[in-house]
Amino acid sequence: MTPLLPPRSSSLWLDDGADTTYPSLEQDHEVDVAVVGAGITGLSAAVMLKRAGCTVAVLEARHIAAATSGRTTAKISLLQGTRASDIAGTAGAMP
Description:
The protein starts with about 30 loop residues before the first strand and ends with a helix. With about 100 residues, the chain is of the alpha+beta class. The chain has a domain at about 35-90. The model has no long low-confidence stretch (mean pLDDT about 75). The protein has three helices and two strands. It has a two-stranded parallel sheet.
């Protein structure tokens, strides 16, 4: 059987050609929170902190999604909690 997609040796997320590198800091900056790491977790935290009124700097040694976040097949969904609640309501909560 022929595979539907050819094998890939690079990340689909990182292969789109978008440049996610930024210049190094040239001077001191004062912020409420410095988030270390520009993966899914770091960027999500930075967005939530910014929405809460904090000044935020995101620090990354390489480029956005350079490590696990750029090479994962994980699915991000806002509905996961809703689905889990539906299942728990139908089948009962897990201990």
